[in-house]
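Example record

One chain of 124 residues, shown exactly as stored in the release files.
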Amino acid sequence: QVQLVESGGGLVQAGGSLRLSCEASGGSFSTYIMGWFRQAPGQEREFVAAISWSGRRTDYTDSVKGRFTISKDNTKNTVDLQMNSLKPEDTAVYYCAASRGDYINYDPSRWAYWGQGTQVTVSS
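Predicted structure tokens for this chain:
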């Protein structure tokens, strides 16, 4: 059973930066695909970014490409999301997730493990 704990959320002005971190325990971290999803009030949970178990492949939703960077440290069991040039529409609860799948899947229902979420609020 994998436990995921996120940290690093907060309030930032538009154009600012935040770095989210997710620490995993209880599983073979280096074998998992890791991802970040977000959910704004009244909206469905959506894919933001993911990284393969090796760290060699990353994928992003179009709206964050060029602004967000996902990284993984298999020695520390952590996955980070560096968020730059933040926009008010990035406001949401951000969730860390882990998958034992063979490829990155954008469907949240395909991810087995989830953190509790961390709030990111971007003011205009």
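Notes: The first strand starts at residue 3 and ends at 7.
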